[in-house]
What we know:
Chain A is an alpha/beta fold.
Amino acid sequence: MPSVIRGIFAGIVAGFVLGLGVRPLYMALAGPMLGFGYARCIHSPSLKPIDHAFTTAGLALPVGFMVHLIVRTLGFHALPQGNELSLEPLLYSALLWIASGFLFGTLYSLLDWPGPERQRQAVDHTRGTSRPTRQQDSRKRIVVLGGGFAGFNAIQTLEKCFGPDPGVQLTMVSNSNSMLFTPMLPEVAGGSVEPGHISSPLRTSFRRTNLVQGSAKYLDTDTGKLLVEQPKISGSKAGDREQDQLFDQKSVPYDHLVLTLGSVPFYMGEDALQKYSFDFKTLQDAMELRNHSIQCLERADAEVNDETRESLLTFVIAGAGFAGAELAGAMNDLLRGIKIYFPGLQDNQIRTVIVEAQDRILPELSESLAQHSREQMEKRGVSFKLGTYVEDAEPGAVHLSSGETLRTQTFIWTAGNRPHPFVEFANLPTNDREAVQVDESLSVPERENVWAAGDCAAVTDAKSGEPHPPTAQHAVRQGKTVARNVHASIQGREPESITYESQGQLCVIGYQTASAEIGGWCFSGFFAWLLWRFIYLFKLPGADRKIRVSFDWLTELFFSRDLVQTLNGTKRELESHQR
Amino acid sequence: MSMDIAQQVLVSETNLLPVSIRLYGIAAGVGVVGAVTALFVFPETSFIWLPLGLAYGLVSTGVVGSRSMDPGRGLIWNLGFGVLTWCLFLATVRLLMQTIGWSTTLQINYFRILNVVLVCLAAPVGLSVGLGQLIEDSKQSEQENLEWTRAIVVGLLSGLLGGWGFSVWMEQVGLFPLIAGILGSEKASVGFFLHFLIAMFVGVTFGILFQRDVRRVGASVSWGMAYGIFWWFLGAMTLFPLLRGEAPTFDSEALSAGVGTFMGHVIYGIILGFVHSTVDGSWRLLFHRSDPLNQEFSGPGVRSFIALYRSWFPSLVGSLAFGYIMWQTGVLPRVAQLIGYSSPVIGFLVHMIIGSIIGMTYGIAFRYESFDLASGASWGMVYGVIWWFLGPLTLFPYLLGESLAWTAGAIKSSFLSLLGHLMYGVITGIGFYFLERESQAWVDLDERIARHEAKHRRPVGTPAPALWFFVLSMGMTLPIVLA
């Protein structure tokens, strides 16, 4: 017998019995109604008659009181005050409600003793193993390639859009198993924040997404397959080049592919610049830079040769965009902060130099604010070489286009980026910057179900017609939009067009000093710095990360920066060491 | 601590045990022995109880015996069954009296019947059948082990703190010299010592009997309240007069005098359950959950935060419904007095804040407990009843600097507040259940996580339905009877 019919039938019988003792009229109505409600509410097929009987007997008493209350309220009677209550009739009603509840539960369950199928369901339910029966093959496979801002937000939005729909399989392919929160990368290089605290593990950040760690090597858009290369675990110690170059290959089929590969450093075709510079894109880069800088101070402290010491204590950063300026500010604070522990070093011997081809810094900010920022940085000890660029580099020195040579053991490149080279191999339509060409819905033209977002895509704003700059906040918006459009495409709806206006710019240029341009308002100093910390702490994914970074910042208020070198070797060995 | 406590605590429906003929025999025998005891202990008990005791043993074993897998479960199932039997008996008598036109006035002596059923029949039969099931099952399969050290240490501490909660009122009304009378003394210090000794004994038995069933705060507090009520019947109403050389009496005077001790036992049970789950939870955190081998998918802090969030919204809705009743009954100005005002609007705001805080704790206390909407509603109502005892009858007067409202008059005047608490509880419980169920669809996507989560969920088969019934029926009808 269907559960609803059983509920109504048992409700009528129980209501009748109840009606013998209390007001029959509304009990005749309440019985089947409550029976219907109970039948609709119960989802556990493994309940036995005794469970039903006790449950309904227990529920009957409070439900009875509430029914009396509702009936009284509907009859527009004021509720009686406590001392007006006659408790003895209440007790009679209570006993009758309990008896009726017991009768209802017993009847309801006895009319449907579980058959074999329901028994099986009961066991499944109890063991928590009842699963959707949909075949895996029929699931829509959505693959997001790249785990940066765009990819991370794309997956999070896809999970939100599809929810727990078992008809969709979400996969992220990333060469890292974490999402690096790059706005805080200078803080790692400057020693303010522990490296692991600004990376969110992808596996714990997503609720239902499979992670494939590896690099994309080949894309076949006709068959919908992506070839992913995964480094082999050699079992030998690090540095075994022969073993390191072995890879496993894995084919990842897709129905929808979202490219969010990001960008890589661009050295204008100068091999020497690539060879002798530090990159500043990854967590490894930031850690390496911090270790290298401390190493330079360790060496310089014991160095007797003035020229060598000068090169050890000169830190050159190519590029005065956000990355370069923030890194220069953070490193300048680190170096000048810890020099007190190196008795052989003088304050004026440490040089942090920014080399910029334009005649101003921070082109993302207004002219006046950029000028103010520059003055603030100069006050803190950062020097600038504007209107010139690094033309060449060699071990221990960089040569500027102005003809000047800077002796340095630390040359950091933040002067240019380009879209990830895989887009070239994938034979996708690109623009002159070699970014994947996409339409307003972020779909790649002439490639069915291939989408792109973030730094690797050439995105034009649907409203303003302007190209989107390769910034984190644009990548976030693009990632969310592309996810919604993939969802719309699968649902058979029209995709939306990408439009976004920058919310503003914030740049930390030194300890408790930042420059901000938000909604046309320009300001700088402590408040801007505080705002930067609040906003980026809020944007940092993961509550645990937020707490860890907060504690790092709190620790920084009371203790000096950590001098421990966490890596033994660095990418660039010091020149003196090579000699 | 090699055993998986999650598996240890919650049993699956498939583990139900068939009841052997031998156990039927034992139950019938215990029922008869209980009836004989009743003849000696309770005056005015007739020999009709002998066949009734036999019948009770057989019927209760047939109905709840398969669920009574250990003494603790046997006790709870039988307490529920005992009260149910009492209710059905009274309801039938009442209907018959009404049908044949006799007086419908309920004689208060029926309360003695309840006491006999619970103390002499339900408890001994439940404990013995549970023990029998435990012994028989341990011969057939690897039995879940009780952690004796944990049960005793945690139980001792819980009993001690619960006893302290009770002692505050006992000291106010000067009950300690009466307790001392058990040992033939009139010194308050002797009574004080004896009270704590009994409280610790009850705490230890709570740990031993219910370690497998109580884990989270909500279940533990509910079990504690049920156990407290049972000990009121056994201790205050039966053993206490007997040990003082008096016969247990159930006239209206004795029942009115029993309001305070009833409230004390309820509050003792609530504190006992709360402390037990807190200490037990800390024990498991330190020695079990901190072990990397028992790593969960998300950290305990994250899960608690999500539970807080999920129960917050339903509790707001529940507070609104409750607020309507408070407005109707005109108690909002009194609520405002908690912060020194008398405006009903401020009283309403204070009520909403308290309601949301208590509602949020529901999420932490009762997550994983509900397996369907009815169980969600039941847990919610039990929570409502618990807070009726804790709130308007205990904490509220205490915070206003008044004496505890553990009197018949106070209970009667705050009876409508019970309805408000019930509505609040049921809305919070149902709302939380729906939000918890929604997240289950995510969990089901990954079979491994689903299996892991399933171990936390309270399955069908535990004595939860009997507990809801016992707590709700006794929590609601006893105050009526006593008031």
